Amino acid sequence: ARALMPGPVVLAPTMGALHDGHARLLGAARTLAGPRGSVIVSIFVNPLQFGPNEDLDRYPRTLDADLAMCAREGADLVFAPAAAEIYPGGPPEVSVDPGPAGQRFEGEFRPGFFGGVLTVVLKLLHLTRPAVAVFGQKDAQQLTLVRRMVTDLNLDVVIEPVPTVRDADGLATSSRNRYLSAADRAVALALPRALLAGQAAADGGADAVLAAARAVLRAQPALAVDYVALVDPGTFGPAGTGSALLVAAARAGTTRLIDNLALVLPAEGAGDAAHH
Ligand code: PAF
C-alpha cells in the first residue's frame, strides 16, 4: 500500500484530548507530509502505560472535539481503535523493554510506563507504516526512548521532534492541565518558572542551573517536586558539557506535570570565567 501513496505517510500518535500542543504536532505532520503525502493521527488511550493508581479511568476523552481539530489541521485519516482491537488477548505477553534509560526519572515514578509507551508505539508504527512519526518535545524522555527503540530495533521510520507549546502564563500545554483548579494552576506555574531560572543560569554551569531552579521551587512549597535534574538529551544519563536538558516533574494538587527546557552547559572552568 505504501508504494501506491503519492507522498510520505506521517503518523502523529496521540491519546486524544487534543490541545494547542497537538495542533502544532499535527501542523508539523502536515508540513512533513506535504500536499501529496498523508497525515494519520492515532487517538488511543493506551491502558498499558497507566499504573494501577493512575488516571486511566478519568483520563479526558473528547473525541468529537479531537476529530474537529484533526480536520482543521488537515489530517487525512484518524485511527481511533478500541482497546480490544489493539490488545485482543488482553495485555501482550511479548513487549518492548525500554532498557536502563526507561528506569530513570519518569520510569522511576511511573513503573512500567515506558514499556507500555514503546510497546504501543511499535504496534502503531506497524499498523500504519509511516515514513515519519512526530513526537512532542514536552515528553522529552519518551522522545529519547522512541529514538533509541528505532535505532536499537532498526525500525524503518524517521522520528521528528516538535517543540513544546506554552499557554500565555508559561505552562506547557498538556491534556492533564484541564484537571487543574485555578489555585492548582497558580502553584503549577512554579515549574516553568524554575526551568526558566535554571536556563538563565546556564553560563554558571550545572550547579548554578540546579541551584537557581531549586530556589524557585522552594519558594512554592505547595508544589510537590518529584525530581529536577540536568540530563544528556540523547541518553537521559547525567549531563556533560554542551547540550543538556533541564527536566522536572511535580504535582499540583492531584495533577502530575512534567516539563523541560534545553540549555547549553559551558566547558569545565568556563562557568567560573563567566563570573570574572
Ligand atoms: O505521548 C503520548 O500521547 C503517548 O505516550 C503516545 C506516544 C501516544 C503513546 O500512547
The end-to-end span amounts to 63 Å
Bound molecules: pantoate
* Broad structural category: alpha/beta
- Average pLDDT number: 95
What can be said about the biggest beta sheet? 5 strands, parallel
Beta strands, count: 8
Query: Can you write the helix and strand succession as a string?
Result: EHEHEHHHEHEHHHEEEH
Helical residue percent band = 25-40%
Low-confidence stretches: none
Which overall shape is indicated by the principal axes computed on the Cα atoms?
A: globular
Query: How many helices does DSSP assign?
Result: 10
Strand order of the largest sheet: 3-2-1-4-5
- β-sheet strand percentage: 15-25%
Radius of gyration (Å)? 19 Å
General description of the model:
Helix 5 packs across helix 6. The longest helix has 16 residues, at 113-128. The protein has a five-stranded parallel sheet, with helices on both faces. A three-stranded antiparallel sheet has the order 6-7-8. Helix 1 (20-33) links the parallel strand 1 (9-14) and strand 2. It is of the alpha/beta class. 35% of the residues lie in helices and 20% in strands. It starts with 8 loop residues before the first strand and ends with a helix. The chain has helices at 20-33, 63-72, 83-86, 106-109, 113-128, 140-152, 182-188, 190-200, 206-218, 270-273, and strands at residues 9-14, 38-43, 77-79, 132-136, 158-162, 224-231, 242-252, 255-265. The protein is globular, with a radius of gyration of 19 Å. Bound molecules: pantoate. Pantoate binds next to strand 1 and helix 5.
